[in-house]
């Protein structure tokens, strides 16, 4: 099925400026990067469970990557992004941060450093720490 890219991006942008808060998923009140991604997917009509359990602020296992593999289609790392690609970044040796591509060169994510959900260009630093990408397209899309 074809993904409603514009609808997903509109939903993601409706979270802009939501404060960053670990292990939360409330629009306007607080969200972390993984819960942001899952909440956008659920609000977009995906029949997926919320993040299954509390996790450390820095993931030290493959839990985030496993969640993406179960619920989305792995594309494998690429320098060419499509709108709504899901991105996994590697910080300090761990696959611990996720974002959504809003265009071929911009991403939206819940940023601890900025303290909120932000959208910005993906630059050289982000490209270097990009671990892998997934597609929002999946067989159980509800539209």
Explain how this protein is built:
- The chain contains 4 helices and 8 strands.
- It has helices at residues 5-13, 33-43, 63-71, 124-129, and strands spanning 25-26, 30-31, 73-74, 86-91, 94-101, 106-111, 116-121, 130-135.
- The strands form 2 sheets. It has a 6-stranded antiparallel β-sheet with strand order 3-8-4-5-6-7. A two-stranded antiparallel sheet has the order 1-2.
- The longest helix has 11 residues, at 33-43.
- It is globular and about 30 Å long.
- The N and C termini lie close together (8 Å).
Task: Write a concise keyword list for the protein shown above.
single chain, 143 residues, disordered C terminus, 6-stranded antiparallel sheet, 8 strands
Layout of helices and strands:
Elements: H1 5-13, E1 25-26, E2 30-31, H2 33-43, H3 63-71, E3 73-74, E4 86-91, E5 94-101, E6 106-111, E7 116-121, H4 124-129, E8 130-135
Antiparallel strand pairs: 1-2, 3-8, 4-5, 4-8, 5-6, 6-7
């Amino acid at each position: 099925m074809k993904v409603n890219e514009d609808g997903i991006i509109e939903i993601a942008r409706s979270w802009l400026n939501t404060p960053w808060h670990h292990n939360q998923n409330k629009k306007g009140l607080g969200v972390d990067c993984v819960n942001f991604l899952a909440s956008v997917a659920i609000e977009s009509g995906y029949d997926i469970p919320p993040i299954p359990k509390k996790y450390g602020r820095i993931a030290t296992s493959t839990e985030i990557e496993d969640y993406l593999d179960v619920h989305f289609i792995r594309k494998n790392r690429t320098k060419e992004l499509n709108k709504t690609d899901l991105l996994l970044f590697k910080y300090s040796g761990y696959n611990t941060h996720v974002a959504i591509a809003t265009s071929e060169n911009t991403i939206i994510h819940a940023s601890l450093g900025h303290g909120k959900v932000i959208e910005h260009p993906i630059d050289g630093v982000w490209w270097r720490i990009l671990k892998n990408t997934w597609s929002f397209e999946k067989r159980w899309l509800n539209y």
